[in-house]
Amino acid sequence: MVRMIVRHRGCTPTIDPTATVAPTAVVSGDVTLGPGVRVLHGAVLTAEDGRIAVGADVVVMENAVVKARKGHDVEIGDSVVIGPHVHLNGAHVGDECFIATGAALFPGAVLEHGCEVRIRGVVQVNTTLAAGTVVPIGWIAVGTPASTLPPDQHEEVWAIQQGLDFTGTVYGVERGASMREIVRGQSDFYAAHADDVVVG
Q1: What Gene Ontology terms describe what this protein does at the molecular function level (predicted)?
Q2: N or C, fewer C-beta in 10 Å, the chain?
Q3: Which of the 8 DSSP states describes residue 8?
């Protein structure tokens, strides 16, 4: 596989001359990479009708996925590490944050300055972490202000999460929509990749 810089929905990535994108990475759509950014092997930054803005001296490690959608832009501040296999979707990440291996940040999540989301931690939709917050290994942050709970407290997490409109935020449908409705909408939306153009 060759590094792919992709024009998507008419938008071409803007990459600072001091940034580097590994030969097996993908940068697609309305993406801006700032000075000193490093996008490592297998990472994908894809702006799906939204915008991704990455600050200075950010490292996006192997196989991370950073995705923006309409209404859920991604903003990543300066001096941030996005660890291997991270899923970062429609979130805002402040300066000097550390997102560890396998963490997941969902649309509408906001991490203020200096937060840490440790290995396999989750920040749910529409959840805000105050500056300096740490989400422990495997724990879940949910709500605004965030409650941080261990995974064995599913009922407590679910009680908060129900009010955060996951299906509306992520899929743009009412809660209770069928999988056929959700997947048809996703299929139609992603069909726009048929018009992608590799530009670099």
Answers
A1: transferase activity
A2: N
A3: B
Q: If you count them, how many residues does the chain have?
A: 200
Q: CA-to-CA distance for 84 and 199, rounded, in angstroms?
A: 26
Task: Strands of 49-173 (E only): list them.
Answer: 52-54, 59-60, 65-69, 74-76, 81-82, 87-89, 92-93, 98-99, 104-105, 110-111, 116-117, 122-123, 128-129, 134-135, 140-142, 147-149
CA distance 132 to 169: 26
* 3-state secondary structure (DSSP) of residue 46: strand
**33 near 12, Cβ under 8 Å?**
no
Count of C-beta atoms within a 10 Å radius of residue 199:
11
Domain boundaries, the chain: 4-194
Between 119 and 175, the higher pLDDT residue? 119
pLDDT digits (tens, 9 = 90+) for 121-170: 999 999 999 999 999 999 999 999 999 999 999 999 989 988 888 888 98
Kindly tell me if the per-residue pLDDT of 38 is higher than 80.
yes
Confidence (pLDDT) at 2: 60
Quick one: tokens of 142? Answer: 């949910």
Instruction: Give the contacts of 89 (CB within 8 A, at least 6 positions apart).
Output: 65, 66, 67, 68, 69, 72, 74, 104, 105, 106, 107, 170
